[in-house]
Amino acid sequence: MSFGGALHVHYDLETQRVLSVALEMTRVSLGLADDFANGIIAKRIIELAEVGERDPELLCEGAGCTLSRTATGAAALGRRQRHGPSGS
After folding, report:
1. Are 5 and 13 in contact (CB under 8 A)?
2. CA nearest neighbour of 60 among 9, 22, 7
3. Can you give the pLDDT at residue 51?
């Protein structure tokens, strides 16, 4: 997704690259396979970028990665407890 005209914001090419990386990191972290939530995620990333954040990892965290990692970690822990250390 481009952060240019689609959301009516304009950033230089490097900033657009950083925002796109953060969007993809967030999508992967949340396990999203389609583009349905891109607009919601992008709006949150843009809010953070507007106050000066340019670190893709921090943008990702601000857009929801922290919650996803916590949920993923809890799910993995539950699998290990049910199935042993290998998770199988």
Report:
1. no
2. 22
3. 93
Using CA atoms, how far apart are residues 30 and 51, in angstroms rounded to an integer?
Answer: 24
Q: What is the rounded distance in angstroms from the CA atom of residue 81 to the CA atom of residue 25?
A: 28
Identify which of 54, 41, 61 has the alpha carbon closest to the alpha carbon of residue 11. 54
Q: Is 41 exposed, middle or buried (0-12, 13-18, 19+ CB in 10 A)?
A: buried
Cβ(36)–Cβ(71) under 8 Å?
no
CB 22 within 8 A of CB 60: yes
Supply the pTM of this predicted model.
Answer: 0.64
> What integer pLDDT is reported at residue 38 of this predicted model?
87
Average pLDDT over residues 69-73: 51
Q: What one-letter code names the amino acid at 78? A: G
Lowest-confidence pick of 20-29, 44-53, 77-86: 77-86
